[in-house]
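Figure 2 data, in text form.
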Amino acid sequence: MLGCQSQHQQAPKVAVLGLGITGLATVNFLLAEGYQVTVFDTRDTPPGENKLKPQVTLIKGALCGKSLSAFPLIISSPGIALATPAIQEAIENSCEVIGDIELFARTLKTAPYQHAKCVTITGSNGKSTVTSLLGEMAKADGVNVAVGGNIGIPALDLLSPTVSLYILELSSFQLETTNSLNADIATILNLSEDHLDRYDSYQHYIDTKHRIYQQAKMALFNSDDVHTFPRNKSLISKSFGFEEADYYIQKGDNQVNFLAKDQQTLLDVKQLKLSGKHNWLNAIATLALGDAVGISMSAMLATLTTYTGLSHRCEFVAEHAGVRWINDSKATNIGATQVALQGLSETISGKVHLILGGQGKGADFHDLSAVLQEIKGCICCFGADAMKINQANPNTLIVSDLKAAILEIAQKVDTGDLVILSPACASLDMYPNFMARGEDFRNLVNAHILGKANG
């Protein structure tokens, strides 16, 4: 374990690349472990700078390989690619580069934390919902649980001797610098093209996601997505899916569907607060994960009947004149938008109207064509890649911004219709993050559809 140094030893040096919430958590953890910390950040005003303790050195500006090479250990932010030349130079000079999740993993193996269980969750879509839902199930069962990682609280801030179960959402960026997690169960929920501006190819992205199985005692995979199948045939594994799986959706009479396990029906999907077929899969995957770490089935099923989902992920915003408005701003890639539309299509009596746009992160918008052709309502696109979306899908209408899209669609809706913001793009061309984009959508709907300035 990283240990505190005696007063007769010089504190070892460590570099932290990137501040923000995760970087600050890393700095404070390292200081408590007795390290001499230097922070590098390319930004002029790094978030969290005012919270750094006086003994921490902060160096701003472009990363320099020679400077980094002076540190035997470097903790890099997930937002900084390992391929960054300065980091590669440090690696070539025998520096160890890891992330905060690897730091967490190493600490979890030591007293007084080593008795806790750990669940790790990744995938292109749905991982935040599954992570949050599993946390609520554990709480309902009286488990002392800590939930975080790529969602909510940084992993290092979760560490406590009293925690008996850690549930971590992990991004591909975090997995790049993580090597020694020993999760009780890990899952890749699904895979679709994402972050192609970061990776050499889709295969490179898939390979990075599969690092999660290499650091787990058991794998849970999606039987309907071959890209999620574990490559190590000796790894104990379970599956979830629509039909041929250990945990699955069972079709009953009169179009009734159930969550099921081993030929046993568990819950009618109509009792779920979450909507859409994709959330049926999220629910059944969560049951499988909870089963693996001993959460009671009764507590899990009870939670499923009350859990309403996450903000900005197929979130109900308003209903006016029989038209529902849905905020799915967290759909920052094509796969997420495809899943959202497919999941909602069978619940709509009228037409679906869609708002797309933002930064496409190198995605091919022709991949949206099949699902967009099924939409009978208005499709508006805006933002940096609006022209690319339109060129690939001529049935879209380019508008100037989100407000213009809402006002355009508002003129075309009828009772029974549904309007969804599901951008298939990142938000950084016009917003600080997808949350700000979703809040803007909510405020605009309240102001221009419901007639309220703030609802």
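Caption note: Residues 315-448 form a domain with the Protein-Tyrosine Phosphatase; Chain A fold (CATH 3.90.190.20).
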